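Changelog-adjacent note: as of this version, every example in the card shows the full chain rather than a window. The one below runs 304 residues end to end.
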Amino acid sequence: MLERLQKIIARAGIASRRHAEEFITSGLVTVNGQTVTELGSKADASRDHIKVSGKLLRPASASNLVYLILNKPPEVVSTMSDPEGRPSLRDLLHGVSERVFPVGRLEYHSTGLVLLTNDGDLANRILQSNDLRQTYQLKLKTLLTFAEIESLARATGAHITRLRGKEMPWYEVTLSEARRDALRNKLFQTGHPVDKMRRVGMGNLKLEGLASGRHREVSTAEVATLIRLLDGKETAAVDRPPKRPPKPPKFAKFAKFAKSTKFTRPTRSAKSAKLAKSARSDQFTKHKRSGAAKKFRPHSSPRQ
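Full-length structure tokens:
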């Protein structure tokens, strides 16, 4: 079946569809020995002899698909190689023999989560998705007011919260990848340039304590959840900071003291108890006698 070359290359796991287009326009792709540079070119992966950068194309099967999460350190390019000789992602993938490529990029000085895979179809879906939420931690040079946070949220659709217990001022931002640059531009225009940026989540994928420069495999369950998110069959929960407990009432300290302290009623001596009982008995007797002294007066007719 004839398909576009960039789709075949992406499905083979050599690169994402966007990077496959760059390979084609750069003259690095040949079909049956002829160089192809037009993006609309088609081929049949089952019959044609396709090479990318001189290497024969072997489509990736479901059994050898690889999904990795890498915590990118600063000053590392988000590519597998760099013509300027700077450190790249390949230098951090020790023990990974399969050819993988990054899905999307982080800036040279940015850090955090990078997804690498040889699943071209999934990579292309992620790059084209406008609804997949990603979570960043931003360090700004100045504090944001509540009015500025609301204005940024309305303009970019981002959920912005201030991180507590962090070096100030750090903020956690959750938004779609397509609006990330718009948020950075808005922050710069309003006098709050981004000093540091760290990506900590992509959909359901989280760093979760992964050390800088280290990588881990993405589980089958995580991949399945990510696909459901892309299909719109599941919604990723936004990590919100826990609500602060309500302030205790003013009498809480007294209540706590009263709970921890044993109050006992003062005890009476036997003599005082006997006197009190005798007084109550005398009072009852007096009341009874006063009632008995009353005589019944029958009703008499008025005098004539």
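Structural remarks: The mean pLDDT is 80.
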